[in-house]
Write a structure and sequence with these properties.
With about 280 residues, the protein is α/β, with parallel strands linked by helices. Helix content is about 40%, strand content about 25%.
Length: about 280
């Protein structure tokens, strides 16, 4: 029987913990894996500290069989991701000829000398594989050890996202085969409180497939229906009767679905009525 993917994502970078940048990779990775039916169970963020990154790897290895790490692959002294993984696994770092050639070409194509500190980015875990990075200097790395698949990816989104799509997802498909797809549908409520909605959906929230869960929104209440199935169409077929039941119970309190917003919903009603809104300051 094919093993089930149990993935988690570790974002490395003190700038995330300081609130200087948003951890956008969490959403990108969640969406990408969900679209493929791969289960992602944990997100975490850790600063640029060797001991703390090693502890994150230790925790991840104890509960997940796929660990995706973003950040910490740059050329500076506080870029410690692969060094921390090497320490945790007890493996040496070796100079990769493939990564060295990539770095030489990257700077040569820009008519710039390569700073000596960038040579650090050519180090690879013994037994690991380089993941090509066509958009930057930091190659990614992949290694499997004791049943856990580790993917190290650079922090810049323009580098990470293409590598996720071109390098990580194809490997996950090869490792885990076809997984059931996950499809979600979000209903937006207005004019009714969360507690009142919750009281009236208790019988629906105990179901296992599809599941029904409340979400916190900005000034609104949301319910997410999520189903797993062999195909998107089969998952949507499971979701449809739950949505019909919710619309029967809550009627006009539901104003939209998925990416809808209240202004979009109001505009849709006005357009249907042939009405307009005039504003003056």
């Amino acid at each position: 029987m094919m093993e089930i993917c149990r993935a988690e994502h570790i974002a490395v970078g003190s700038e995330i913990l300081l609130g200087q940048i948003a951890n956008g990779h969490a959403r990108s990775i969640s969406l990408a894996l969900a679209a493929e039916g791969f289960h992602l169970f944990h997100h975490s963020a850790v600063g640029d500290n060797m001991d703390r990154i090693v502890r994150e790897f230790s925790q991840a290895a104890g509960r997940s069989n796929v660990v995706l790490v973003t950040g910490g692959l740059g050329p500076t002294g506080d870029d410690l991701t692969k060094e921390a993984l090497a320490q945790f696994l007890g493996l040496p770092l070796e100079v990769s000829a493939e990564a060295t050639i990539h770095l030489d070409r990257y700077f040569a194509n820009r008519n710039k000398p390569m700073p000596e500190e960038n040579r650090k980015q050519a180090l690879c875990l013994q037994g690991g594989s380089i993941l090509p990075n066509p958009n930057g200097t930091a190659p990614g790395q992949y290694i499997t050890y004791a049943g856990v698949h580790y993917f190290l990816l650079p922090g810049p989104p323009l580098e990470m996202v293409p590598m996720l799509e071109l390098e990580v997802l194809p490997r996950l498909r090869q490792i885990f085969g076809h997984q059931q797809v996950l499809v979600s549908r979000v209903l937006h409520f207005c004019g009714i409180g969360e507690s009142e909605v919750d009281e009236n959906v208790q019988d629906l929230t105990v179901a296992m497939n599809p599941t029904l869960a409340p979400l916190a929104g900005e000034g609104e209440m949301l319910l997410r229906i999520t189903a797993s199935a062999e195909t998107d169409d089969e998952a949507r077929t499971l979701i449809d009767p739950v949505e019909r039941e919710l619309r029967k119970r809550f009627g006009n309190f539901i104003y939209g679905m998925n990416e809808d917003t209240l202004p979009i919903a109001v505009g849709r009603v006005l357009s249907h009525l042939g009405a307009s809104v005039s504003l003056a300051e």
